[in-house]
Every structure is written in C-alpha cells, then in structure tokens.
Write a structure and sequence with these properties.
Order of helices and strands: HEHEHEEEEH
CATH topology: Glutaredoxin
Shape: globular
Strand order of the largest sheet: 1-2
Strand content: 25-35%
CATH superfamily: Glutaredoxin
Radius of gyration: 15 Å
Structural class: alpha+beta
Length: about 100
C-alpha cells in the first residue's frame, strides 16, 4: 500500500489502516516501515467485528482471536465497493487496481 500512495493520491483515493494495536505501537510500526498513511486504533475490535475481520487464527499450534488481514475499497458515500479477505500484502494492490480500473 505504501508504494502505491502517490498513484492513489493522484486518483483522489486515501488509504487508512486499522488495527487493534494501541496508538503508541502503531506509531512505532509506522516509523519502522514508513507507511505514509494514518493508522487507526480499534482496541475493542468493534470495527473489525463490524467488517467481519475479527476471527480465529492459528499460529505455532495455538489458536487465538485476531485480525484476519483484509482490504476494503469504500467510496465517498461510505459504500463498500470491494472487499478482500485473507489476502497477503502482495495481493492487495493488484486487487485494488483491478477494482479501480476504468474509473479514472
């Protein structure tokens, strides 16, 4: 997403990240990776639940609740134009570009 920001901005598209991490943790993550877009804290995971991305995950044989990495394209009126669940960072922008194709 970070690398696509200049092109997104010329199209009038804004990027926002949301995670259950505290703002202090998000700031450190942003500083480390130079994201260039805002990160919003969803500590009580209400937004994640509303978008269906708070779910069961497994890692190293342990099961826990967490964010299912997803991306959403939301129009200026707040309508969800595209939703992609369980995607990798590499998959995100090709899917978004496909959804934006022909609009600009």
């Amino acid at each position: 997403m970070r690398d696509a920001l200049p092109r997104l901005r010329t199209m009038g598209v804004a990027a926002v990240g949301i995670s259950p991490d505290a703002p202090e943790q998000q700031k450190k993550f942003d500083e480390k990776h130079g994201l260039g877009f805002p990160l919003l804290s969803d500590a009580d995971h209400k937004i994640a639940e509303a978008y269906g991305v708070w779910g069961e995950k497994k890692m190293y044989g342990k099961t826990f609740m967490g964010i299912v990495r997803s991306a959403f394209l939301i129009d200026a009126e707040g309508r969800v134009e595209g939703a992609w669940y369980k995607i990798s960072p590499k998959e995100t922008m090709p899917l978004v570009w496909g959804a934006l194709a022909g609009r600009f």
